[in-house]
Amino acid sequence: MCSGTTHPLAGPLLGVPDGYAKKHKSLKEIIDGSRSGGDSDKAPELVDLVSEDDEPSDPADVAAGCSPPKRRSRSTPSAAPVFRKRSCVNFRAPIPDDREEPDGAGLPVEGLEHIFELPDTDSDGNVKHVLRVLFPREKMGDEAARRRPGYHRLGIVETVWDAVRLYNGTARAEGATEQELLEEHLDPSHIKCDEWIHSDLQGAHETGIRMTRKGTFCVRVVERGGTRPKTLSRHNDIEAAVEAFNAHSREQLVLGYASTRESQKFGSLKKLTDSFATILPGDDNALKLGEDDDRSPSTEPSIKLKLKLTPSAREAAERMRTVRLAARGEAPPPRTKTKTRKRTPEIRRNVCGIKGLHVLYEAFTEDVERTLFTHKKLFPFGATRSTASEKRIDSTLGLAQMPDDIMRVANVVRDSGLEPTLITPDHVLSQSYPPRVGFMSHLDSSERWGEVVVGVSLGADGVLFFTPNCRSDRGIGNRIRNAALENDFADYPTESGVTESDSWRNGRGSRVNKGQKSWALELEIPRRSVYVMSGAARTDLEHGIRAVKAPSQESAPAWNPLGVRRSLTIRAQKPYSDATLEHLARENPRDKGVSQRLRSQMSFKTAFEATTYGNTGRAGAEQARAFVAKNAATRLRFEPSQVGFATEPGAKEDDVIRIELVDEDEDEDDEDEDEWGVDEIVGKRVLEDGETQYKVAWSGTDGRGRPWKPSWEPESNLTSCREAVEKYETMCGVMKRSEYYC
Ligand SMILES: O=C(O)CCC(=O)C(=O)O
Ligand SMILES: [Fe+2]
Question: What are the residue boundaries of the Fe2OG dioxygenase domain, all occurrences included (predicted)?
């Protein structure tokens, strides 16, 4: 259906023409409908970048709007999340005249993408949007026309309805079967026609938040340096949308400052601010001049962009959402939060069976996570980016410039007992991984870095993988390879007790044929977790970061709308680390632990030249050690309420009190947690500590209609679904499987 038929604010929704209600209609119905003149004058004026039916493979695609539609066979089962057909109107690519009939290369050639939206200016100078309808010459009946590749312009029309009619009419005249039309071109319900949600929140034509037919809130922005609005993200609730918009605006502001080229400053930001100046006038204007030191050196004042969600705007947004959903036959979901389980801080050691690989889950609160994620020194290029172009900042900040928060993180690592003897880091590397960006397998050099590598995950979950080291067949690497070659993994059960995907995985290609690299152990590293790699985890396996899809809307925080994972790799460079160990050994001659650590480090050559101590060598490293020893910042800590563990500095792991961090969202209504329907039990495992867990397939779907991902749950959480557990046990009994794998 084309929702532009009646503006929802004009009354209950309602003016959905019957003829649009079905997903697919016959050509005759459409053509007849149009002949009767019923709908064309009600057709929408605004169309959006992508259909909300889309399951874009990458939010970057959403933002860029530039991924061609991936065609799926109609027979593909739809259980798994899939990429569905894009809307027919492609905002991104009005084809300039000189490209209108090119040699065919590079233009979208399938389906409804032949209709392009085009801004145009009327005689009063108002921008209006018209649609250009193109028809692929290759589909034309005329042999001569077919020989010239490219497009034939059918016309420029004002409404989607007219565009579809024009396209279909031509396709039909050129001999397209009804089936083809149905599949590709016919149904205007593929076209989304939505309105800006409310005058309180309305941007100009192009930016702001608007509501989709499905009742989600679509955040539209213009990126700095860009001229076209893009869909940044979609949200189920208006607050999240506003938050995402504001976060984006802040990012643009930062980018504006960060730019050294005067001409780039405020390029599109200006456009944004202009549009906002018109909607939040007067004292309540959320566009404020920034502080003095916040101002750009240009004459343009710093402007803090903030889209304000007033109670009346929220009310209107919710009312519209209810109407929209009701029109779709859906009840508005309660305003309770989506599924979030309570998380408990926890340390797991030697995970994946890899010695020296330890993880601290829920190391700190979301508030700390966000502070680190948006830390200007660590991530100077702004909030989130959808491309890998600004992926890594090698912050060899030097000890004197080391952010206090890195010292605090180091103390979390020590105080939690994760690595009580961690040497104060003198180096931090901050990296951003937009969805689908990974880090190939590598070794963190034992000649360049000291004993321990600390990795902190922020903003989105990640997957750390370990794979045999091609240069060394040592220890576990060799064993993994042999297991793979013999296809015998009896000694390597799925690593119980870490996460469900912490298991043997086929890295690339087949198990044996592609050699030792084809196997990897994977470990999920959730947001707010901290891992340490030492010993064999450093030397016997290479590690890397898997490129993963964007997190679901539910799991990504609103302040990270693109689902970028950020990481901090915190290390002590080897010369300085050795100087520290030598100092400790001198001070504690009887401490066997220290002398052992020193001996172990001495087995690696020290690559002075590859570190910041290249010029100053040992003396420089000793100076750094002395600096740290008297630097009060090394004793800085987060507030007790901000970390997952409470302890006295220097306490043993057993003395650590684990604090339950509750998601901020999760406030009042704990019962909600238990309301998740269990479809069935699909797996069982027993953890190292003897705890039994079941893998639960949940009923229902997330906000995007995808089934929830199954998750491992302790037996004690499943008392209300004993039946499902018993059914599973019975089935296992019948199948005579071992307890571990059934
Ligand atoms: O992003 C991560 O956690 C891994 C980074 C890493 O392996 C490295 O910096 O060497
Ligand atoms: Fe690394």
Answer: 424-574
